[in-house]
DNA sequence: TCATTTACGCAACAAAGTTGCATAAATATT
DNA sequence: AATATTTATGCAACTTTGTTGCGTAAATGA
């Protein structure tokens, strides 16, 4: 979907910074951390603004956070196939390559339901797989 | 297991700092982040030393990292029941409470095997569950 | 075009994490 | 037990990551 459409759909003002961030995501098809975006948009979008854009995007459901075992969280576009799969729930898995450190959404793999020990009420599931990606194989 | 035994078993020198860190873990039974340990051991162990202790412990298999969706990773003792379950693999799940932000190992729940899309060679699995813990229920 | 609302950029700060190096402490050797 | 060797610690200095306040600019609505 086009950046401008995404913004309208999520009730967000159409600003240059936001559009550029969305373009960056759409051209990579992998999860991006703040510092990667900052680098890509150096001189175009301020560092602090970038933090605020990411926060807003997450709050509005444009992006989702992916927990990371290294320096900082990453973000990926929510529901790539939003037109088709309208009731997209974000309980899909993520894969992180130990070689190149890139993280991908595995959209077509839903985390199975599991019986969890007593006393815990589970509302979210994050499955992060580690290994070697196609490129690095 | 006693701190000193753990250190010997993992081929680590028996130092005051390391012992205190292990004591801290054994008295809490939850995952701890660097800043929590730093606070608990203020004046006892230097901040930088603490980073190095955690790194060493992870490398030697005393602790394991738990990815987090917030500010920094957490650590938990590996294989609580190492004496019994000797071939402990760290593919157990973790639970993080959205109320108190505490993270626990769910040692008795092993992540099931799953068929992953082509091209990815999976060697590690991190399942982070979110929700409400017993105390906060 | 003008008013209003919201986002942006900048400065200043706080928190998290790293590196180098001299000294202290732990282990190994005699 | 004393000494040599190895390894860990503490401190300073620095980088990176994330936050807050505020005046200005840009986006939207009238
Ligand atoms: Mn995803
Ligand atoms: Mn664990
Ligand atoms: Zn790779
Ligand atoms: Zn709780």
Give the arrangement of secondary structure elements.
Two copies of one chain form a homodimer.
Chain A: H1 3-9, H2 16-28, E1 32-33, H3 34-40, H4 47-60, E2 63-66, E3 74-77, E4 92-97, E5 103-110, E6 121-132
Parallel strand pairs in A: 4-6
Antiparallel strand pairs in A: 1-3, 2-3, 4-5
The structure holds a DNA duplex (30 and 30 nucleotides).
Notes on the structure:
Chain A is of the alpha+beta class. The first copy, chain A, has a single domain (3-131), classed as Winged helix-like DNA-binding domain superfamily/Winged helix DNA-binding domain (Arc Repressor Mutant, subunit A), CATH 1.10.10.10. Chain A has four helices and six strands; from the N terminus they run H-H-E-H-H-E-E-E-E-E. In chain A, the strands form two sheets. Chain A has a three-stranded antiparallel β-sheet. The longest helix of chain A is centred in the middle third of the chain and has 14 residues, at 47-60. The radius of gyration of chain A is 16 Å and the shape is globular. Chain A binds chain B through residues 65-70, 73, 93, 95, 98, 106, 108-109, 111-112, 114, 116-117, 119-134, 137, and chain B through 65-70, 73, 93, 95, 98, 106, 108-109, 111-112, 114, 116-117, 119-134, 137. Strand 6 (121-132) of chain A pairs antiparallel with strand 6 of chain B, so a sheet runs across the interface. One zinc ion is lined by residues 97, 99-100, 102, 133, 135-136 of chain B. One manganese (II) ion is lined by residues 64, 76, 92, 94, 105 of chain B. Chain A binds a DNA duplex (30 and 30 nucleotides) through residues 13-18, 34-35, 45-49, 51-53, 56, 71-72.
